[in-house]
Each structure stands twice: as structure tokens, then as C-alpha cells.
Amino acid sequence: MSLAQVHYTSAAPGDEGTGGRFTAVGPGVSGALLSEIEPLLRYELPEGVADRPSDGELRSLPQAFTYAVLSDGSRLVSRSTPVRATGGGVGPGVRFHAHAVHLPPGVPLPGDRLPVEAWRSPHWVAVTPGGAIPDPLTLPPGPTAVSEGLDDFAVSRGPWLAAVLADLRRASEPTESGGWPVVLVERQCADVARWLGLASVTLPRESAERLTFTTYTRRPGSSAARVVGALPEDAEAARAAGLRVHVCAGQPPSGGGTDDAWAATAARVWRSRSPELFREARELPGEPFAAGPLAVTALCAGIVLGPDGRTAAAGWAADRPYALDAKRTGQLVEALTSPGIDDRTGPEFDAVGRLFGALEGRCPAAVTAPLAAMLVTEAVRGGNGSLELPRRDAFVGPEGAAVAERLAPEILTELGDTAGTRSVARTVQLLRVARLLGVDDTDSLPGVVNHLAPALLAEAAAEGGTDTPGFAPALLELLDEQFEVRTALLGALDRIAPRDPGAVARFLERVALPFTGTQALPHLRMCAEVPGAMATLGGDRAAVWHRVLRAAGLSLFAEPLVLRTAVGLVWEDRAPTVEEARLLLDAATSDAHRVAGTWARLVDAALGAPAAEPSATGPSPASTDEAAALAHDLLRGFPGEIGGRERAGLLLLDLVRELRTGAPDPGWAETVRTLCAQAEPVEPALRERAHAALVERLLAPDRPGAELYDFVHGDDAELIAAYDRTARTETVRTRLRTQPAYAADCFTVWTAHPHAGESWPPVAAALLDEVLRPAVRAMSAEDVAEVEATVGRTGSSGRADAFRTWNRSSTLGRLGRRIAGRVRRG
């Protein structure tokens, strides 16, 4: 089919104000299309062109070879080239001529060639045909050797190859037109065309056809093409416009790489001068730009690839184990396991592991044995704990013996090093490989397990959260494979549990260890039981404790350490209450608590018991009595274990018990002060409890006078303040109102020591005025007389006179206030 042609040339002399004119237009090209075509054909000379260039200089000027898609779906292939002029035009001595071929929608170039294949055609002309223009004009595509010399060009552009191919691939995607172009900076526009030739061979045809381009422009930012060529002097302007620029005409880039595995593999194929592999790769299943098919084809052809390419090849083959014949499968395995490779990565080994799993059983052992050997060698020497190891039967025969002989010393040496910081995953991997290769690690197993057990807890805690730790799947496989390791490891964890039962319980919630066999493992069973018990029984810690103890399957009298584990699981980082501590003390003997070390928890419970909450009727000593009784029993049960400040605190509690229920030794106030000093830092609640017990006893009707005298003259501000608070409680006020003898006694005490230090006199005066006086006012005359008589009997006539004077001043004060009120009302 003949194709319509268009000729366009720069303005002739005297055509000022015009950029150019059409000199020939073939049939079928409308005026609307011409207005769209004209900007594509215009040409702008590079900077610094001589006014009258020589023939050589004229030939060296760039040509703009362009391929564009027009708005109606038709396409245009054109060449704009500078020509010598007699005057006027673009420059004094240079004009340009554009020759274009219009391709209607759906009509290809002759021979179904790609547009870039026409760039070297000899049928491009630099003048408009004279005389009558043939109708229609024809333009055969000319030589199709677009690939001629591309190998050499690709090798010369090696540093830029992968990055440019990656961008050309992205530019060929079926996205909306009008995006920013990829700019290729070359000194010769022919080299830009060669880049496009590389793309036409590398990309699938439909992608290559989407690459609109021009090999030369002064204004890349305003071009609608997807790929544009530019000279070095225009590169900076292209960068400033935010375009993706590849300067292929200067110093090679420092990196030059790309994270596009397909592009990196394609670059290696070109550098190996094997472009025919692109066609072979497209025959394999997979996405057009998946790296796997191309990487497999390259490796089978003997081309050396990097780790990303090898990973892609192994992953692709693992997903399609039947896509390759036996010959290519063997070639791929040989390439992947080559001993000369020293840059393998974790993802590559993972992909090779998947490939081994896909091929095992489908291919002869001689084919898969190198993969198995590579995997176990990496597991030992590379420390890759995520590898999926082969089965034991993969190493039956001389291959397995050779691998075992090579790796056994390394495995045993590392397993024997228990002083290092070997990770759990590493230890598990070594144990699994040892069994896989038949290495006897019996002698090192006890040390390995003693190192592994605490590492399990530490690494799980370091990961945090509630998810399964990363090492768990491999660990569970190890325990399932090796009975002796499972037995030893569970035993070691059971021995650790009493020291940190909470950590073991949290670990078992995340890793379901298989300890349902015949091993006793009482501590592990308790740790596994506690989450369910707490969820079922809620806040009843005593019930949880009993249930956890039952899960142990052993009596705490036979194995006292289960007592420690149970207490640590239920109370962990907090002390039991006094009631719970009493339960624990009564549930086991002091010897069991002594062996288990749980007596310290009981001491904490006694010393940390809260002070009595005050009520409307005064302090309630019930809880403090329980704590004091517990302290008494602890001092008696653990005399050799309890010492220091804890012993002083318990003695203080025991004194509280005696102050409230018995007859303590003389010197109460001094004893309280001494024990508080020895128990420093004493718990505030304990100090408050001791002070309250002392002053309650000193405010009792039967308190010894000597103790009261020592208390008053001790001048202890804290104790006197506690006395003041207790004397103001409703219990004391009621007793003052209803018991004249008690009121007389308090009057005597509160007036007997007017010069006893600094703290007592103001407190006593305040109590007389604010506590005793209201109580006496509320008494009947007979009770007041009894108070006065009692004061006289227990003291002297002078003290009785003092009471009458004190009470009369109170009465006169009341009368005076009544008279003043009447005067004000009058």
C-alpha cells in the first residue's frame, strides 16, 4: 500500500514572520492534521552553528528522526534535517527540510517494520520533489538492519544500560499520553536512534510501538514524545525542568544500577552480545517484564547474573517446575550452584530453597543434590536461619558423605561454644543440619540446651508483643524431629521456671511447646495453666493459686519449688494481701517456704498492709490486727532468715499486736521510735499503724502513768500529732461525754505537764479547749460534779480548784455570750 508523504521546509527569503511552509502534501492528509503535524516537523539549530558551515560541519548537525501518534489515531514518521540555503531561513546559510510519511490508523510500515527501523532508510530526501508530485508517493522502509552494530553500542553504553532500559520500559507502558519524556543525551542523534533500536529488540513489540520519540530537540520539556534526544549543552535545562535525564555522552555514572531486576538482566544479556535471548525469553510463561523468564534464559545460556537475577530465575522456576525441560533444568541448577559465586543473598537462598522443594521428587537426585548441598552449606556458613532445609534422604550417597565430612567439624565447634551470643534461630538451624547430615552431637547437647533455654525467653521478650516469635516454626520442627533435643530442652525450661515463672508463662502463651508426654515437667505445666485459670477465675487469686498447684501434679511438700513457681505466677511483681499471705503460710510448712524462698513474699505482705481506714466511730483495727498477727508468726517461723529493716518492721507490727491485745514490755514510745529508725525506710502505712496503736493505748483509761509520762516528755512531734488526731476521734469524744472518770483523767493529763518540751503544751491546751470543754458542756450537773470530785480524789484540792476555775470560765463565757446576744437583739 502506498503511503501519503509530506514535505515541509523552513521559510524562504522574504517570508518573515513564518516558521516554514508545506511544499508537498499527499492525499488523505487533511488541513486539521497539517496543523497538528507542523510543530512536529520544525527544526531548531544547535547553539554555535557557523553562519556558513562547511560541508562536513553541515553533515555533522543533528537530524530529528521522529515518530508520533496523531489525534485521529494515525501515525507520523518523519526526518527533519538541516540543508544549505542561498539565503534567509533559519540562519544565514542553513535552512531545514522535513520529509514525513503518514500512516493511517491500523496501517503498518511496509514489511510490518517498526518505525525506528526506517531511520537509516536511503529513501529519505532533503528536497521537495520537482515538477508534478507522484500521487500517491511511496517510501519503502529501506534496509532493516537496525540491529547492525547494536551489540557494540550496548557494550559501549554498559554503565548506563540498565537504568536507561528500565526507563524505556516504564515509558512504554500503556499510560495516558502527555507524561514527562525520558531524555537521552548523546553527542550524535544517531546514538539516540541506536538506544531506540535497543528498545525495539528488548521490549515486546506492542511496548516498542508505544514508544513515541524524536532523536533531537532543543526543548525536551515541551515535547509530547515519550523519549527525546538532546545534545549535552541542553542537558542542564532538561534537568531543571524535572525530566528524567540520562547523560550518556560524558563520564559514566558512579552507580549506574537500578532496582529493576528485568532491566539489569536485560543489560547483562546485551553486554553478552546475545540479543536473540529476548525472543527466547518471551516464549516462556510469565508477565512481559517479569525478570524470571529472561533470567532463566540468560543463566541457561551461560550468562553470569547478579543476585537479583539469580533470585528471579530461581523463584520463577520454583513456581513453574514443569516449564523447563530436563536439559535446561540441569543448566539452571548448574548456574545457580556455581562455586564461583560469592555474592549470594538471603532472598536468593530462600528462592533456591523453594526451587529445591519444587524439584525434589520430580528430578533425579543427581540434579537436586547440588541445590541441597548449597542450602546446608549456607545454613552452616552463612547463618541464614530462614532457609527451608531439605529432607534427610536428599543426602543419601557419596554427595551426602562429602558434605557431612566438610561441615561436621564446623557444626560441632560452633555448638560447643556456649560462651557466645548465638541466636536461637542459629542454634536451631545447626541442630537440624547436624541431624540432616548424621553428625553426632550427643556430647555437646547438654551445653547447647543450657544455652538455648534462657535464650528462648530472652529473644521472645526482646521481640515484645503477643505474636509468635520468628524462630518458633523452626524450633517446633526441631522438637518434632529430635526427641532427645525436645526432652533436654523441656527439662531445662522446667528448671528455669521457678526462677522466672512469669517469663516462662508468657513464652508458652506465644509458643505452644509439646510437653504433653510422659515427662513430669511440673513447673512448665503450671506456667501453661495460669492464663486459663486467670481467665476463668478472674480476680480470685487464691483460687488461681490452688488450680495452678494442682496442674503441677506434685505435692508442694514433696517439691517445695512448685510453691515458688505458683506464687511467682499468681502474684509475680506484687505482694499478696495479708489474707492471701495467711493462706500461703497455712498451706505449707515453714520448711517448704524456706526452701522455696517464698517467706520473703509473706514478709512483704505484712509490711505492705495498708493502714486502718478511719470511720465515723474511729479507726478499725481488724486488718492491722491480721497483719500484726502475721508478723508475729513470721518472726517465730523464720528467725534465721528475717533480718535488718524487715525484722525491725515485723517487730514493730508485733508491738502493735501487743499494744492492742496484751502487755508489752515497758518503754512503749521509745520502742516505737527505735524500731521505726531501724526499719528505715519504713513504709508510711506501717509507721501510721504503730503510732496509732501507741496513742490509742495511751488514751485508754487503764494506761500506765509511767508510759504516758515518757511519751509526753519524749517530745516526739510525730507521736504527739498522732495522739492529737486520735484524741479528736468520735470514740474518744463519746467516752469523754459519757464517762466522768475518763474526763477527769484526761483533764489531769492535759493540765499536768505545762512545760514538757515544745510539742506537748500547745496540743494539750487545744485538746482542753476543743475536745474536753465541749464534752463537759454536754454533761449533766451531776456528771460535772463527779468529774470535779474525781479530779480532787486523784490529784489534789488545788487541781480540783483548777478544774472549777477552768469550768467556771467556760460557764461565764457562755453567759456573757447570751447577754451580748440579748443586748444586740434589744
TrEMBL record:
<feature type="domain" description="GTPase-associated protein 1 middle">
    <location>
        <begin position="151"/>
        <end position="241"/>
    </location>
</feature>
<dbReference type="InterPro" id="IPR045401">
    <property type="entry name" value="GAP1-M"/>
</dbReference>
<dbReference type="Pfam" id="PF20052">
    <property type="entry name" value="GAP1-C"/>
</dbReference>
<dbReference type="Pfam" id="PF20014">
    <property type="entry name" value="GAP1-M"/>
</dbReference>
<dbReference type="InterPro" id="IPR049532">
    <property type="entry name" value="GAP1-like_C"/>
</dbReference>
<feature type="domain" description="GTPase-associated protein 1-like C-terminal">
    <location>
        <begin position="270"/>
        <end position="803"/>
    </location>
</feature>
<dbReference type="Pfam" id="PF20013">
    <property type="entry name" value="GAP1-N2"/>
</dbReference>
<dbReference type="InterPro" id="IPR045402">
    <property type="entry name" value="GAP1-N2"/>
</dbReference>
<feature type="domain" description="GTPase-associated protein 1 N-terminal">
    <location>
        <begin position="3"/>
        <end position="132"/>
    </location>
</feature>
<protein>
    <submittedName>
        <fullName>GTPase-associated protein 1-related protein</fullName>
    </submittedName>
</protein>
<feature type="region of interest" description="Disordered">
    <location>
        <begin position="1"/>
        <end position="21"/>
    </location>
</feature>
